[in-house]
Design a protein that fits this description.
This protein is 14% helix and 31% strand. With 153 residues, it is of the alpha+beta class. The chain has a four-stranded antiparallel β-sheet, with helices on one face. A four-stranded antiparallel β-sheet has the order 5-6-7-8, with no helix packed on it.
């Protein structure tokens, strides 16, 4: 399983870099931050991104790092197709950057997005609809780990 996860992550990064470098794939001029793929359906990939800084206006830091002004979105690509911006209940644009995207290893289609302000959003259907979970984790800057074990046993 670990080898499989490592393989699809490498493929994902290669696809992402190829799309960004060529200016195609629906992400031209975006500041990409985190990426993940569905382990059961590795052709389904997710990405968080915001706008690039506008150097002509004196912006040197990407909006992703500005609280309340991240202007970020979550995107999905299926089978290498153009990246599509997801909404389905997510604020548009997100005021806080999704610095963590985590797929559920046991349940296809489930994705968690951890925002920089600590909010966690969840989708059950590959990103078509989203709900904000009823807790806040404090500042999320890089990674969240979700333990999917059944603790009732």
């Amino acid at each position: 399983m670990v080898e499989d996860q490592a393989q699809w992550r490498l493929c994902l990064k290669a696809h992402l870099l190829a799309g960004v470098a060529s200016g195609v794939a629906g992400l031209a001029s975006k500041y990409e931050f985190t990426v993940d793929a569905d382990p059961a359906h590795p052709e389904v990939w997710y990405l968080s991104a915001s706008a690039q800084p506008n150097l002509l206006r004196g912006e040197f830091s990407p909006p992703a790092h500005n609280e309340w002004q991240a202007k970020s979105h979550i995107y999905r690509s299926v089978g290498g197709a153009t990246w599509e911006q997801l909404s389905g209940g997510l604020p548009e644009p997100l005021d806080y950057m999704a610095f963590a995207l985590v797929t559920d290893l046991t349940t296809p289609g489930h994705l968690y997005a951890g925002l920089s302000n600590g909010d966690v959003w969840h989708t059950l259907d590959y990103g078509d609809t989203w709900i904000r979970l009823p807790f806040n984790m404090g500042a999320i800057r890089q990674l969240i780990i979700m333990d999917m074990r059944d603790w009732s046993k």
